[in-house]
Structure formats: structure tokens, C-alpha cells
Amino acid sequence: MAEPPAKDGLGTPNILKKLKAEREQHSYKDLLTKWGIPINESEVNIAKHLISKIFEDMAKNVSVQYAGKAQDVGLAYDPSSELERATYALFKLGAVLVPLNPSFNFNQVASALSHLEASHLIISTEVNLPRKDPRSNIPLLQELVPDLQSAKLQSTISSLKQIILVQNDAGRVDTSALKCITPYTSIYSELPQDVKALPDQGLSPTDVVNIQFTSGTTSMPKAACLSHRSILNNGVQIGDRMLLTPKDIVCCPPPLFHCFGCILGYMATATHGSTIVFPTESFNAVATLKAVQEEKCTALYGVPTMFIEELDLIADGVVPYEGFQYLRTGIAAGSSVPSELMKKLHKTLNLTELTICYGMTETSPVSTMTATDDPIEKRLNTVGKLLPHVEAKVVNPLDYDQILPLGERGELAVSGYHVMKEYWGAPEKTAAVMVPDSEGKIWMHTGDEASMSADGYITITGRIKDLIIRGGENIHPLEVENCLLAHPSVSNVSVLGVPDERYGEAVAAFVVTHAEGEGKVTPAEIKSWVRDKLSHHLVREAFSGTYGDGHGACMGLEGGWWAAGQDEDKTRTPARQEEIDDNTEKTMMMMMMMMMMMKRKTRKKKSSRTIRLCCHAPWGNQRMKRQR
């Protein structure tokens, strides 16, 4: 078990005090001239006043409108300057920020608000989703508030006192009849005379400041309660390990309703004076790469699927291979990062100091992280070492009291400042994952299989539930995925277990090839590749499949092929396909995901609204570009 370091230096009182101290270390003139804006000293003083007071002003106005300390405020809209202001205003007020996925439908929004008994909802008039036209939120509001024309808000959610509407539709949505909805512009002003001092809210480091949903279910959502202390210190330590400075420009395409954008993005950059760039309101690989080029970004964030799509665009010539020389670091996280993908990112995008983060929403979120100067084999094959003030142990998943020896695989459990306080309103679910040891120390059980080396590096080998048990032997999907991704014709892959009458489970692989590889790689070649690189038992049942043409069994996997551990002599008939699909719901879900990925590559690009928000921490200059 890894021992925690000394506890001195941990625990800035609250987010606002940290940001105030950070702000005072930087030159406002430097921040404002960073983007080439001509200013004089008087303008610097005005800007300094506005930037210092902007969040206090908004927090005061929100407070007047009933939000207060310990009250929950849901935010359901895309990255924008309004979102940034609202976030820090709520932090200052002491209200609990609850970011919601903008794509949520009424049932999901209503479930979240009801579960938390939220008092306020801040929402935009439109939602911009990937590869879709903007979606109006007015129908959702009509379900939340049946009589929008009433002077008094009466919602189907009994706790909801106020809805604040951000107008982001460029005049496409008529809001004139929404009498009981509060316009965002009415609670925010940049005029110095409108600013009123906000009384000290008596914030404590242990106060819950952020609630993150970890489940997409609408009936019993899990809402992780995170404190000032947990998310602030996690952001500081993440930025420290990346070696972030005020000179860094971080491109952050992951969403802000997730810890990746909110903490690895906002908190890490804000606590180091770095610039953060949000390429678009929803993920767009082309816009992300162009943002890196145009803004001369030094860091790039993403999950594996984002990076894969970006690399494919460069390989296919959709985005020119230029302008990436300023990149040095970044974060890859969100799911297992295959070593072959890491190698491609090092080579193609110059991310030679790319770091790997491992964690979960319940741990604010990062527990382990590689360093920029870790040996390459450590950055390729491990998730690094523990962050300061974090402990970890590898235990027998069937007996939590049994700590396993170094190098042996078991379930990873972590303990420290970063562990959530609880799942909101779910004591049984909390108790199932936050388990005290014999000394009373609380351990968060991650559900991930891992091993720990003698020098402190942790390797994640898969989810405990995802292990494929074939004839009593454990097979790790990530090991097979790494093997397949090393094939020069393979772009993406996912491996899972499917039911097998003889062995209990068999290995199934869903493979997407590069566009230039279509028709050039066969199932037999892939089978041989796995046999040569790994083991015979992984390919004892022959892979069968056909190349995708957008029809039939391949479900539109254009440029790819579907392969599963089935007997070679079985014909791919509609009846046989139905039998395969019925094997497991996960199989169907994976095929749908791969289909969407391939359609993403071939769909004709349409003009869309693109917003790039560049904000130098919460006090810096902002620049927004809108293209139509």
C-alpha cells in the first residue's frame, strides 16, 4: 500500500480565495494585451475593476433572486462566457453548482432537479449538439412550466423557484411570451455603479460546491457531492503535474458538465493563470484542430475517441498537417488509453509531454497521473503515480480486507481529500463504494482492476465487470485492444465478451479500419495478427465478418468490418445476425456506437455555428468568435 505524503500545503480555504490570490499575481495589462487589444492605463483600471467585481455582482443578483448558500442551482447550457460567469458567481455565493448535460430531455432534467430539490435552473434558449441543427429548449421549458405566460413561476418541480434564461439563439427563438422566466441580462451588469458588495458567505473548505451526475439513468441517478477542498486541490495538483504556467494555452474540447472540462479544464488552468480555449459548444474534431492551429495551443485535452477522430482527419488530409508545433502536453483520460494511440499522439501531434489521468467522478476526479518527464514506457503502459495526499491499495474484490502483494491484480481502492462526501440522497449506494477499514479510514472502491509496482506506478488492466472469463481464464479486453490497434490498417476497436455455450464467454472484437484500408485487410489477417502477437486461445474461434457497405449485418460500418468469436462455417444470414444481436445488449450498443463513429467520418459537412471562447482564467480577457 502506498503511504501518503506529509499533509502540509494542502487545503486552500475555498475556491474564491484561491482565485483572488492567483489574480493578484498577474498583470491585468498583460492579460488584456495577450490578444493584441490596444489599451491605455485608464482602460486597464476599468477592466481591473470589472473583472474583480463581475462575479460578485452576479452573485449578489442571484442571491436577491432567492439562491443562497447550500441551495442547488442546475446549469444546462453549452460553454460560453455566460456559463463561465455563472460558475464563479455561484462559487462566490456558496450555492451548489450542478452542471447538467445540455442534451438531456425533459425526463432527465426533471429527474435531476427533483432528486436534488434544486431551487434554480440556468438554461439556454438553444442547445448545440454534435452534427445536428440547434435544438430549441422552449419545449422543455413548457413541460417544466406549463403556463410560461403567467407572471409567477409554477413548475412541475416543486422545489424550483426560478429559471434564468441565456439567449444564445441569435434571434431564432421568440421569448417574448415567457413572462415567468428571468432573462440572464437582468441579473448581470458590467456597469460599476450597479455593483453591490456581497456579504461574506462564510464558506468552508468542506462545503459541497459541485454535484456531478455519474449515471445517465433517469430513475435513480447517482449524484456525487464534491467540496471546495476536493476540486480546488485536485485542479492545483493536475496543473502542477502538467507544469502549467501563465504562458500555456490549453485547448479543452471535453464538456463542462463533466469533471474533465470543469476540473481538469477550469480548475487546473484558473489556478495556474493559464488560458483555456473551448473550440465549440459541442465536440467537433475539425474545430478542435483548427483551434489548436489558430490559437497556438500548447496543450490539448481529450478522451481516446476524440483523439482518434482528430488523428483520422489529419491522416485523411481533411485538416492540414501544420500548426501543431506549439503543442507539448495535454491530458488523455475518460477511458483506457491504448499505448498505440499514445504513440501516434506523440508522433503526429507533438504531444511528447502528454499525461494520462486516471480517476472517477467520485474522486474529484483524478487519483493518479503520469508526469511530463516520466519514462516513455511508464506513460504508455501505466496511469502514473498517486497525486499528493492520496493513498491507494489493491484488494481482493471478494474480500476488501485482503490487500494483495505488489504486482498482483485486484480491485483498486483510494482514500484521501479528493473522495466525495456522498451520493446525494443515496446512503445505500454511498455505503456500497465508500467502505471504512478496520481503523475507520474511508476507501473509495473504484470497480477497476489494477496492479501497483514497487516504484509506485499503477496499471489499470480493466473493469472488474468487463473481464472476459473464457473457460475459467481471465482475458483482459484492453490487452486485445492494444494488440489490434497496433495493426497498421486499424483505426479503432472495442473488445468485449459474448456468451458461448462451451466456454461461458468468447472474445468479440468490433474493428474500424482506416479509409485507405477498406478492402485491404481480411478477418483472416486480423486473426493471424492476434495469434502471432498474443495467444492462440484468443483466436481459437475464427473471426467472421464482412466489410461494411452501410447495409445488412454491418449496420452501416462503412470502412470497417464486424468480427465476433464465432465458428467460421456459420453463414451471416439475417436469422444468424438476429441470433448474434440477441446474445447481449452490450453487443448491440457497441455496434451502434461504431456505426455512429463511421457515419461521422463520411457525412457531408454542413455549415454550423461555431463558438470559440478564450478565457484567461476567470479574470482574464475573453474572445469569442462566431461563424455561420
UniProtKB/TrEMBL annotation:
Residues 479-539 form the AMP-binding enzyme C-terminal domain. One of its GO terms (molecular function) is medium-chain fatty acid-CoA ligase activity. InterPro entries: AMP-bd_C (IPR025110), AMP-bd_C_sf (IPR045851), AMP-binding_CS (IPR020845), AMP-dep_synth/lig_dom (IPR000873), ANL_N_sf (IPR042099). It comes from the Eukaryota. Gene3D superfamilies: 3.30.300.30, N-terminal domain of ligase-like. Residues 68-424 form the AMP-dependent synthetase/ligase domain. Transmembrane segments: none annotated. GO terms for biological process: fatty acid metabolic process. This is AMP-binding enzyme. It comes from Trichophyton interdigitale. The lineage of its organism: Eukaryota, Fungi, Dikarya, Ascomycota, Pezizomycotina.
